[in-house]
Amino acid sequence: MRDGVDGLTATIRALQVQGVSYTEYGTLLMPIVEARMPKSWKLLRERKKTESRVAFNDLIRFLETEVEVKEMADRDSFTGSASGRHEELPGVLENLQQICQQPRHYITNLH
C-alpha cells in the first residue's frame, strides 16, 4: 500500500509542476482513488467523514495516515515481523501515468 500512496503523491507533484491545478486533478483523481481503496478503508473513511463533500487533499491525508498506522501495526505486531506484503491500490499508478501523459488541454477539458 505504501508504494501506491507514494506513487500517487509523486504523480500529484508531477501534475502540479506541469501546471495542473488542484481543482483539475482532484476532480479527476478522486473517483479513481476511491474506487481502488480497500473496502475496509472505505468504511473507515465514511465513518470519519464530518462533511458530505471531502476535498481530495483530505483523501490523500487519510491514505497516508492509514498506511502509517498499518506499518506501525505490522512493525509492532506480537509476531515481531512485518507481513512483508506490498499491497497496492491496483491500477492506480498505471491510470495516473496515462493521465500524466495526456496533453494539458485534455486534462483541463474534463471538468
* Uncertain parts: 81-86
- By DSSP (H or I, 4+ residues per run), the number of helices equals 6
Strand content: under 5%
Write down the overall mean pLDDT.
76
C-alpha end-to-end distance: 29 Å
Give the total of domains: 1
Please give the largest β-sheet.
Answer: none
Structural class: mainly alpha
Question: Roughly how much helix do the residues carry, as a percent range?
Answer: 55-70%
The overall strand count is 0
Which outline best applies? globular
Gyration radius, to the nearest Å?
15 Å
> What's the SSE pattern?
HHHHHH
Short description:
This protein has 111 residues and is an all-alpha fold. It has six helices and no strands. The longest helix is centred in the middle third of the chain and has 20 residues.
Layout of helices and strands:
Layout: H1 2-17, H2 22-36, H3 39-48, H4 56-75, H5 92-100, H6 104-108
Helix pairs in contact: 1-5
